[in-house]
Amino acid sequence: MQELPDEHATRAFGARLAATCPLRGLVFLQGDLGAGKTTLVRAFLRALGHVGPVKSPTYTLVEPYEIGGRRILHFDLYRLADPEELEYLGVREDMDDATLNLVEWPSQGDGWLPVPDLVLSLSASGEGRRLELSSGTDAGREWVARILE
Ligand code: ADP
Ligand code: MG
C-alpha cells in the first residue's frame, strides 16, 4: 500500500510503473470516477516515450498507442453495457495482439477478461489517494518486486 498525497505522486508512480514494465502485460486499474486511473496511465505512457495527448477512452472504449515498437492498448470499460460485448468486439484478440494492456473499470468486463498481471486499486485518502498493488501472475509478482525495490 502506498500513499499518493497529490497528483504529482500519482504521476511519479506512473513513471515508476513504466521504468519497471515487462515487455508484455495486463494491468487492471480499479477505483471510483476521479480516483486517478487515467492520470496514472497518462504518466505511464509519457514515461515510456509517448509524445502528444492521451485521451480518456471513456467513449471510444479503447485508445491504441505505438511506443518504441510496443503496441499498447488503454481501455476504459465504464460504458460497457454488457461484458459479453467484449466477445463480439474482439477485445480478447486485440489484447493478445498488443504487448501491453491497461484496463480501467475491469469489473465491467467480469468473467470476460484474462487474469491480470497487476491490479492497481486507487481510493480516496484525505486530499490525496491510496494505492494498493496486487498481482495475479508470476510476471506480476516480479513486476511488483521491481516497483517496490
Ligand atoms: P479516473 O480516470 O480514475 O476517473 P482521472 O485521472 O481522470 O480519474 O482524474 C483524477 C483527478 O484526481 C484529476 O483531477 C487529478 O488531478 C486528481 N488526482 C490524481 N491523483 C491525485 C492524488 N494522488 N491526490 C489528489 N488528486 C489527484
Ligand atoms: Mg479514467
TrEMBL record:
This protein's GO CC annotations: cytoplasm
Molecular function GO terms recorded: ATP binding; metal ion binding
Coiled-coil spans in chain: none
Tagged with keyword Nucleotide-binding: yes
Primary location recorded for the protein, binned into one broad class: cytoplasm
Keywords for this protein: ATP-binding, Cytoplasm, Magnesium, Metal-binding, Nucleotide-binding, tRNA processing
Subcellular location: Cytoplasm
InterPro entries for this protein: P-loop_NTPase, T6A_TsaE
Entries under NCBIfam families matching the protein: T6A_YjeE
Protein name: tRNA threonylcarbamoyladenosine biosynthesis protein TsaE
Species of origin: Ectothiorhodospira haloalkaliphila
Lineage: Bacteria, Pseudomonadati, Pseudomonadota, Gammaproteobacteria, Chromatiales
